[in-house]
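Entry 14. Ran structure prediction on the chain below.
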Amino acid sequence: MENVVITIARQYGSGGRTVGEMLANKLGIHFYDKELMKLASDESGINEALFVNADEKVKSTKLFNLAKSAYHGELIPPESDDFTSSDNLFNYQAKIIRKLAEDGESCVIMGRAADYVLKDYDNVLSVFVHAPKDFCIEQAAKKHSMSEKELERYIAKTDRHRAGYYKYHTGREWTDARNYDLCLDSSKLGFERCVEEIIAYMKVRFQ
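Output, structure tokens:
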């Protein structure tokens, strides 16, 4: 298979983003994270700032931890009052994610429920990177000047938002291992070994 898309979901502090960047560098392929918002903005004509703010808007609603009707690929037309709704902003990001999977170039996609959006694609490898609380706190402390208790609350809040975002748009539980091809504990493997394991899995599956 010529092009493989690796989607990576991760607990905060697990180093999943670092693993994704290292993997993309090692394979010489593109790494997509927040760039997806710019691409979705270009595709839709909707201001990029609305994509950036959309997650915060969804997080602030009580519906965030409830599953709406899961994403099925529909786009809301420009003449609709809901054209710039959080749901449609997700739809446009999903459209870009699908396009990346179909365009013939391998890449790594970080978050955005990409594993669900691409669940029916044969050329997709979905990964979930996780780690125990102590490890996540230790890693988060390298980026944030907070007390251990503050870091613990920050990590819990971030992961709660990620889980809610995922459930809202997919109807699934974010931490359910059945959603992913590969689940890796970065505290046991280290980041480099996580990369090696993903590449080894790719070789077995896609050869």
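The chain has eight helices and five strands. Will compare against last week's run tomorrow.
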